[in-house]
């Protein structure tokens, strides 16, 4: 992911947090949030994991306008002990992990501009709050996110942050989950994107592969296009069990001897849900 500079900008606390500054959002920004919200909320039922919709309802995120973090936090804290804190943008890895380990989710306080409605690189408040926060109201996913932060702090000491960044990417940001009636979305990078919410589930291009911790930690990722491979978990319980109850140090040591796996590669041991055509990625490559 993008590197952030090492010391907090002017006006930010030592842990990089800033006030949300809710009063500064303009009417046009509230209207843009509502437009983004309506577009996703209309499409996601039947496509997203049910816990996501339950979280939107429980946190009253269905009310119009950009949410106030203080109100959101009253409900979120009651549900799982998590809270949302405002940050100016990407924060350094160790700062990010420390917040998660303490059940604080750092969210950008700014909203994208209308010309960035479908894509922007820095995580804004729509991605961070609409995409990430609903699942923080789910007790099992909430524990996974804390365990991820704790694992990140340990990984930093072992020089293995890139391994954990891949795990985050392919679960928290771009994960798919098995439902009773087919695959469902849960990754925040997908559910906050109109195009990828369709692509990740319905397009014949990408591979959809059963989640395997070591496999995921060896797999590179793309940050500037739809994913070429999505990994499918069985349940949040299973994800939590495979990570929180695993000692990563010996895995990092073993993986050091193994080559990285390309973004579109399929391995003999992969549990395939879909073998993708990669037509999308090939067409993109042909354009440039
Ligand atoms: N900072 N604000 C913010 N949001 C992120 O998702 C984020 C970050 N800093 C580091 C980071 N993510 C990743 O590099 C880690 O997940 C590895
Ligand atoms: Fe994110």
Q: Can you identify the CATH class?
A: Mainly Alpha
Helix content: 40-55%
Q: Show unreliable segments.
A: none
- Alpha-beta classification: alpha/beta
Number of helices: 13
Radius of gyration: 18 Å
Task: Summarize the helix and strand pattern as letters.
Answer: HHHEHEHHHEEHHEHEHHEH
> What general form does the structure show?
globular
Second CATH tier, the architecture: Orthogonal Bundle
Number of strands: 7
CATH topology (level 3) name: Phenylalanine Hydroxylase
Distance between the termini: 23 Å
Number of domains: 1
Query: On the 0-100 scale, what is the average pLDDT?
Result: 95
Strand content: 5-15%
What do we call the CATH homologous superfamily? Aromatic amino acid hydroxylase
Describe this structure as you would to a colleague.
This protein is an alpha/beta fold and 288 residues long. It has one domain (22-284): Aromatic amino acid hydroxylase (Phenylalanine Hydroxylase, Orthogonal Bundle). 47% of the residues lie in helices and 10% in strands. It is built from 13 helices and seven strands. It has helices spanning 27-43, 50-58, 69-80, 93-101, 125-136, 139-157, 161-173, 188-191, 194-202, 213-217, 236-244, 248-255, 279-287; strands at 83-87, 104-108, 176-179, 182-185, 207-210, 229-233, 272-274. The strands form two sheets. It has a five-stranded mixed β-sheet with strand order 4-3-6-5-7. A two-stranded parallel ribbon has the order 1-2. β5 (207-210), α10 (213-217) and β6 form a beta-alpha-beta unit. α2 crosses α5, α4 (93-101) packs across α6 and α6 runs antiparallel to α7 (161-173). The radius of gyration is 18 Å and the shape is globular. It starts with 26 loop residues before the first helix and ends with a helix. The model has no long low-confidence stretch (mean pLDDT 95). 7,8-dihydrobiopterin binds at residues 1, 87, 90-91, 93, 96, 106, 123, 161, 164-165, 168.
């Amino acid at each position: 992911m993008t590197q952030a500079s090492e010391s907090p900008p002017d006006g930010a606390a030592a842990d990089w947090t800033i006030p949300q500054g809710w009063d500064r959002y303009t009417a046009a920004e509230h209207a843009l949030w509502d437009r983004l919200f309506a577009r996703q909320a209309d499409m996601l039922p039947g496509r997203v994991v049910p816990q996501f919709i339950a979280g939107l309802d429980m946190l009253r995120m269905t009310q119009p306008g950009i949410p106030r973090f203080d109100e959101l936090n009253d409900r979120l804290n009651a549900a799982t002990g998590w809270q949302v804190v405002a940050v100016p943008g990407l924060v350094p890895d160790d700062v990010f992990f420390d917040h998660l380990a303490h059940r604080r989710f750092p969210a950008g306080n700014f909203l994208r501009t209308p010309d960035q409605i479908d894509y922007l690189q820095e995580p804004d408040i729509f991605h961070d709050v609409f995409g990430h926060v609903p699942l923080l109201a789910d007790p099992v996913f909430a524990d996974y996110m804390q365990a991820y932060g704790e694992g990140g702090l340990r990984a930093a000491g072992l020089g293995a942050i890139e391994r954990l960044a891949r795990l985050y990417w392919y679960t928290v940001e771009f994960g798919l989950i098995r439902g009773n009636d087919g695959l469902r979305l849960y990754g925040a990078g997908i559910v906050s994107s109109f195009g990828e919410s369709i692509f990740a589930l319905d397009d014949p291009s990408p591979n959809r592969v059963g989640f395997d911790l070591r496999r995921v930690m060896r797999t590179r990722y793309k940050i500037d296009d739809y994913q070429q491979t999505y990994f499918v978990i069985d349940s949040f319980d299973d994800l939590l069990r495979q990570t929180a109850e695993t000692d990563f140090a010996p895995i990092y040591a073993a993986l050091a001897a193994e080559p990285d796996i390309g973004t579109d590669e399929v391995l003999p041991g992969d549990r395939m849900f879909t073998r993708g055509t990669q037509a999308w990625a090939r067409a993109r490559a042909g354009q440039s």
